[in-house]
Amino acid sequence: MEITVLCWNLFHGRDFPPDPGLRTWRSRFLRLDESNDTHVQVNRDLSAEFATLLGSAAWDVAMLQECPPRFAGPLARASGAEYHRVFTSRNELGFWRALLARQNPDLMASGEGGSNTTLVRVPGKLGGIAERRELEIHTGEPERRAMAFTRTASGLCVANLHATNDRPKLATADVLRAARAASEWAGDAPLVFGGDLNLRPAEDPEVFERLAADFGLNSPATGPKMIDHVLVRGLEVVAAPAQWPPERRELSLDGKALRLSDHAPVEARFAKQDPPVLAN
User: Fold this and answer.
1) 3-state secondary structure 181-247
2) For the chain: N or C, fewer Cβ within 10 A?
3) Which of 69, 75, 59 is nearest to 192 (CA)?
4) What is the pTM of this model?
5) What is the pLDDT of residues 123-148, one digit of tens each?
6) How far apart are CA 50 and CA 246, in angstroms?
7) Torsion from C-alpha of 120, 126, 130, 136, nearest 10 degrees
8) Dihedral of alpha carbons 219, 61, 159, 278, sign
9) Alpha-carbon gap, residue 233 to 239, rounded angstroms
10) What CA–CA distance (Å, rounded) separates 43 from 143?
């Protein structure tokens, strides 16, 4: 059985045109659209656009980071999926944060609060979600980080996390702590482990060597300079993790391209052995 995994940091549900000149203070404060010959930048709620893109993509498991908590239900419904949501940082007074973010997403930015959300398509190949766990992998400054651990009915386990950014030593500690817990919780079951790890193989090769040596997480990293990764244990790599080209995360708006998120989705395909059939 082949399984397609999608990993995507949603940039708190915002767009990010390639032309930095479109990301203006005028748009941020006055909510005015900015455009050039090819792209448009908007400052409004984009939950429907993210739902459209995710719902139309082909995947079995989607691992989302910087996902606004209010997006989890709509994204799952649009994709025919069950979801497992784990809150990360800035989620106090969540109702009021979400209300303000609907009015002005760019001004609120990460202030809306975030989550790591895992979607599993149902009925699908994996049979839905059988178990949900979470682990707080970092407390205190600069912000809370947590891992969403999801066991599917097929036995496949998924560990979805967003490691501490801009501080390599903290990111390393986050990733290794999460990998240890995920490996222990998964037991002998196949495991998908990844997300926005905030670690680059070219700069932190020893971390990826430890993930392979200590936990068997040794599928190819996305790229030497990439920070979004999908690693596996107990699965055969059919198509190595690779970023989508920019146009795949763009939607048409009045004849111009609306590019979602500042991260490109990472897609990978793996093969999982079916459980043996027991004879009477």
Assistant:
1) HHHHHHCCCCEEEEEECCCCCCCCHHHHHHHHHHHCCCCCCCCCCCCEEEEEECCEEEEEEEECCHH
2) C
3) 59
4) 0.92
5) 999 999 999 999 999 887 888 899 99
6) 15
7) -50
8) negative
9) 15
10) 25
